Amino acid sequence: xxxxxxxxxxxxxxxxxxxxxxxxxxxxxxxxxxxxxxxxxxxxxxxxxxxxxxxxxxxxxxxxxxxxxxxxxxxxxxxxxxxxxxxxxxxxxxxxxxxxxxxxxxxxxxxxxxxxxxxxxxxxxxxxxxxxxxxxxxxxxxxxxxxxxxxxxxxxxxxxxxxxxxxxxxxxxxxxxxxxxxxxxxxxxxxxxxxxxxxxxxxxxxxxxxxxxxxxxxxxxxxxxxxxxxxxxxxxxxxxxxxxxxxxxxxxxxxxxxxxxxxxxxxxxxxxxxxxxxxxxxxxxxxxxxxxxxxxxxxxxxxxxxxxxxxxxxxxxxxxxxxxxxxxxxxxxxxxxxxxxxxxxxxxxxxxxxxxxxxxxxxxxxxxxxxxxxxxxxxxxxxxxxxxxxxxxxxxxxxxxxxxxxxxxxxxxxxxxxxxxxxxxxxxxxxxxxxxxxxxxxxxxxxxxxxxxxxxxxxxxxxxxxxxxxxxxxxxxxxxxxxxxxxxxxxxxxxxxxxxxxxxxxxxxxxxxxxxxxxxxxxxxxxxxxxxxxxxxxxxxxxxxxxxxxxxxxxxxxxxxxxxxxxxxxxxxxxxxxxxxxxxxxxxxxxxxxxxxxxxxxxxxxxxxxxxxxxxxxxxxxxxxxxxxxxxxxxxxxxxxxxxxxxxxxxxxxxxxxxxxxxxxxxxxxxxxxxxxxxxx
Length: 681
Prior knowledge:
It comes from Thryothorus ludovicianus. The protein is mostly helical.
């Protein structure tokens, strides 16, 4: 009894210690005291619960979950459901956390809060939205602002990933988190300018709220603003301002934010800007997308986009095996997705295996008819690249849902015209027009009342008529033109075309139709011809016809006679021209390019001019100097002596010169050597 009493007293003291440490937030010391209590009574439910809480507070989620799983008999789901689900959630075992929450007998407020977080991570946004609405409706505490923030995040995710038009929740955007989520929702709707304004407001609110805390530094503020700036850069990228976006992305990377998800998204966006350029930078950035924990921070679509870009980067860097491996992995994860197959086909085309690429695309189109249209468009492009235009047309015409589209009709007609297959081109027009006729009949439910045709239908009929007229198919064009005139009897242009076509086939019919043309009086345009001719853009101005007096008439007649007497001037001939001698046929060529040019003859005096060392003079230079002959008696410098240099001379100073006699001496020595020795060394 005394031992039991002593144990109870010790336990009471330990519980007091646990309570005091818990209030102070010292969970490490509290855990030591709890362990001592468990040594006294290992199945103490309260002590085990306290131990789990202390481990969670210290971030030891795996150890906490281990304690729960080893004491399942004591720690039942009713007792510790929230703690177990929270540990599983923090360990990224989201499916297990959902099962734990759903298996709990009583759904507490804490479990409901966690349930909303779990649904968000599982991307079940509709259920998540309902859960948060229920929480906001039935809760009144200090966490209401956080719940509203989470609710706005769900709406933003729906708008971004599911393209759902968000409903107005009536949330007052008093915090930067709410502004940021609202901006994300606007980006999902494509309202980029409005989203940018929201982000600017979010940045302003963030700075205001953080600057109020004296302990927060400017670096902390910039780190918190990183995600807002990242979203701003993304808007710039979508708007085509890639240089501005790239600059902002790199500024965020230099800050080295701790959010690996943010870094991965920014790195991926830079890779998309680089494309097949600046591949070395892309290979560096792709390492940021492989950081630990990225897969738990991003949505499935974000992770998928990153993997697609990795495969494309492998293709651009000529890593064929890596590209095939990544694209095959993506295809196994999403068999119905187009991009993995398109990447594989692009890689095959880079390897000049076009036939294999077309076969791969055809197999995919057969297996997934819903996505066949886009695949067949790619197949047609490959056929055109190979020069098989007719086969490309066959593939395009097999896409039934696009046969009537104006773009498809235009492409097929152009391609058939290039191949000079006019009959097939006309057939394309006919099928498209018939489709619109059948579609109109279905919408009118068999009504006999005249119904105007749609603008696209009329446009196709007109294009068909013009095409047939251009290629000489007058009879076939007549029915189309009559249909157009029937729709709009006041269309003079169509009536003129119809008359022109009938004039070659049935002239009598053309005469009858010509009566419907408006009279010339009604068609006359009130145009001031003189003002038009005198306008700035007129290329020809007609002279005004006025009455001429007798003097003016004589002057004009005299000028006419003078003009008639003027003759063409003869070309000037050279002074030494001899009509008896045949002109040189090469006289127009420079002397060096003529066939008889043999070069200039070498003379002794000419050779000496400009030769020798820089600054030296020769005996001939004094004879050529007119100034010396005029002002002073001719003198010639002696060999080895320097000539006088004037102050205005351009000669290089003497320190750069060599003795004047040196070249001559050298020449003499060379001449002696040539005379004496014939062989050489």
